[in-house]
Design a protein that fits this description.
This protein is mostly helical. It contains 4 helices and no strands.
Length: about 170
């Protein structure tokens, strides 16, 4: 569990800095501050798509590193969810170029509290599930790689203690 939190937090903060801040600032610097559209600024849409796919890769990478450390692909799913949670909180607190964020919006919007609660539930649950699946998909090869690495390490240690070289056994 500690490895999932460690890798999830590390990858979540790195994703926020590189994707949430870095790509956004790059897009504003290169393409200006206007709205993104296929007609006037397709480059902004390209950066948006790249950001989305890199974020999915980040969930998978957190799962891979956790799976490699714990030898458990399920912990990779937890790491993906932690990555999403950290990234989501940071991007909610500050997103460059945004006019407002969730923290400053009026709570008396149409639909009442029930509709807002349902919208919040859906907008958190679906991406959290996707993050868990991507983390698990990264955790599977990570766990396999970790097992191979530990087996190779234990084999080399056993050969060193017996005095036999690796080629002799």
């Amino acid at each position: 569990m500690g490895a999932a939190i460690k890798w999830g937090a590390l990858v979540g903060v790195a994703s926020y800095l590189l994707l949430g801040i870095g790509l956004t600032v790059l897009g504003v610097a290169v393409f200006g501050g206007g709205a993104a559209s296929l007609d006037s600024s397709p480059g902004k849409l390209t950066l948006g798509c790249a950001s989305l796919f890199l974020l999915l890769f980040a969930f998978s990478a957190a799962g891979f590193f956790t799976g490699r450390e714990t030898l458990n692909a399920g912990m990779g799913a937890l790491a993906g969810m932690v990555t999403f949670a950290i990234y989501g909180v940071l991007i909610t607190v500050y997103a460059p170029g945004s006019s407002s964020n969730v923290l400053t919006q009026d709570a008396n919007m149409p639909g009442g509290f029930g509709m807002q609660a349902m919208a919040l539930f859906v907008t958190v649950t679906i991406p959290l599930g996707i993050a868990a699946l991507m983390g698990w998909l990264g955790g599977r090869p990570g766990a396999m790689r970790g097992r191979k690495l530990r087996k190779a390490t234990s084999d080399s240690v056993s050969h060193e203690t017996t005095g036999a070289s690796v080629g002799e056994s």
